[in-house]
Write a structure and sequence with these properties.
Blueprint (H helix, E strand, L loop, with lengths): L3 H7 L10 H8 L4 H5 L17 E5 L5 H17 L7 E7 L5 H13 L4 E7 L6 E2 L12 E5 L1 E2 L13 E5 L5 H10 L5 E5 L6 E3 L7 E6 L6 H4 L8 E4 L5 E6 L6 E3 L7 E6 L9 H13 L5 E4 L1 H11 L11 E5 L4 H12 L6 E5 L26 E5 L11 H11 L5 E5 L1 H4 L10 H11 L7 E4 L1
Parallel strand pairs: 1-2, 2-3, 3-5, 4-6, 5-7, 7-8, 8-10, 9-11, 10-12, 11-13, 12-14, 14-15, 15-16, 16-17, 17-18, 18-19, 19-20
């Protein structure tokens, strides 16, 4: 017969219920409201714990009338019982319907009244039926991070966000005068993200607090002419003398990117949406070279696929301007023209210390790398670290990665480490036929002469 003491020892301990309320509330705050509210059924102690959560997250992806009606009802009921005045996070992600616009306005007002520090409004609109933000959102003294997706940002009065440090606006109509109101109403803004926004063509930012600017205008518009009718003016003018980090992805069709005063810039990422423009266009190629000239003082440069495709048209005949960059990231297809671009960029980077070549596209057809430029005109005296990722094509026996690695090993006397990865190659359909190819590539890398005692890591 089992003793009472033994039965007590075998009784499982409810460790979750033993936690203090503050820790349980923190755990519940990591869930959506719909999920955390279900915990009220666990016990009397848990009945109202979820209402104390400092994070209110509401999401609804279904677009049916029935689902939306239930979602609106659920949010309204929740806000009645959740009466905190110090919310940390308030997030809404839902389909938009005009008939519920008054409810949406109440929710936004609740977030402002509750002094929410992080507010995110993601509106899944249909047929360009945008949600117009109420005026209460533009007068929030406590919000520090604000995300607006699928909204119409059209304040009639001034914008007052004295505590805002990060602003993310996406898929929105954003007129030029609104941009100016935002910049003047956010004295401590640290990071500004503008993704797929329409209506403005100039960013003049003199704020000393603005550290990062991310602009993505690469979205393809079926009615492009409707959104951008005046092709004589630049698509985007950026002037920010105190900016540290800039990332720009633009649609160069009919327009160009103009960089003004960016004298303090340290990091720059540039990309073109080449799927909607002719990469051989004189205007596009000219703009690409102007940008390269403008960022020649930037230390850390990341040049993405579309921009490299345009530069490849120039690399055969033109020399790139000499730069002060110390770190270079390049993303491009594995083709012959890309080799010309890489070589040209290296020759124009005498102070380069770190290089990352990230190629993810696979070349189809015969190998054509042997007639490309196969050497550098100078030594890379400061280059210490190299990463080459996926710069191989199955039908070219490790090229052009092997050619590039051979050049770098020979021309970098201070090189300390080279890391080579060929993940896309080993996962390709040809991998089963070329089982020995990774070994052959590694053997070739180790056999190349080098001007330093660099360590070559192959994975």
């Amino acid at each position: 017969m089992t003793s009472p003491h033994k039965r007590i020892k075998e009784t499982p301990i409810d460790r979750l219920s033993a936690l203090p309320d503050c820790l349980i509330i923190h755990i519940l705050s990591l869930l959506e409201v719909k999920q955390s509210a279900i915990t009220a059924l666990l016990s009397k102690r848990w009945q109202f714990l979820w209402t104390e959560s400092p994070r209110l997250i509401f999401k609804e992806k279904r677009i049916s009338t029935w689902a939306l009606k239930r979602f609106v009802s659920r949010v309204n009921r929740t806000l009645v019982v959740c009466g905190r005045n110090d919310l940390d996070t308030f997030e809404l992600d839902f389909p938009y319907s005009k008939i519920y616009c008054p409810d949406y306005n109440v929710w936004v007002g609740f977030a402002v009244k509750s002094k929410a520090k992080q507010v995110s409004l993601s509106i899944n609109h249909i047929l360009d039926d945008f949600y117009t933000l109420p005026r209460t959102i533009f007068q929030s003294a406590y919000v520090k991070q604000l995300t607006l997706r699928g909204c119409t940002v059209a304040p009639r009065a001034t914008i007052e966000w004295p505590s805002l440090t990060k602003l993310h606006i996406e898929d929105a109509e954003l007129q030029q005068h609104v941009i100016e109101k935002i910049l003047s109403g956010c004295p401590v803004l640290h990071c500004l993200v503008l993704k797929h926004c329409r209506g403005f063509n100039r960013l003049d930012m003199c704020s000393k607090s603005l550290y990062e600017l991310w602009v993505d205008d690469s979205v393809y518009f079926d009615d492009f002419d409707k959104h951008y009718e005046d092709f004589d003016k630049p698509l985007l003018q950026i002037s920010a003398p105190n900016l540290h980090t800039l990332s720009v992805s633009v649609n160069p069709k009919g327009r160009k990117l103009c960089l003004g005063n960016i004298s303090s810039l340290v990091r720059a990422t540039i990309n073109f949406a080449v799927y909607v423009c002719d990469t051989s266009s004189t205007e596009v190629m000219s703009n690409a070279m102007e940008i390269l000239e403008k960022i020649r003082h930037v230390k850390v440069v990341d040049l993405r696929y579309g921009y490299i495709k345009v530069l490849s048209r120039l690399a055969m005949n033109d020399r790139f301007p000499q730069s002060a960059r110390t770190c270079l990231w390049v993303n491009a297809p594995t083709d012959k023209c890309s080799m010309h671009v890489v070589i040209g960029l290296l020759e124009s980077s005498p102070n380069l210390e770190a290089l990352v070549i990230d190629f993810s596209s696979i070349v189809r057809g015969p190998c054509t790398y042997l007639d490309s430029k196969t050497d550098l005109d100078c030594d890379l005296l400061h280059l210490k670290r190299i990463v080459i990722k996926d710069f191989t094509s199955p039908n070219c026996v490790g090229e052009p990665m092997l050619t590039l690695a051979r050049i770098l090993l020979n021309k970098a006397p201070a090189l300390e480490k080279m890391v080579v990865r060929i993940e896309s190659f080993t996962s390709s359909p040809q991998a089963a036929v070329n089982e020995d190819e990774p070994f052959n590539i590694a053997q070739a890398l180790l056999s190349y002469p080098r001007s330093s005692k660099a360590v070559v890591v192959f994975n």
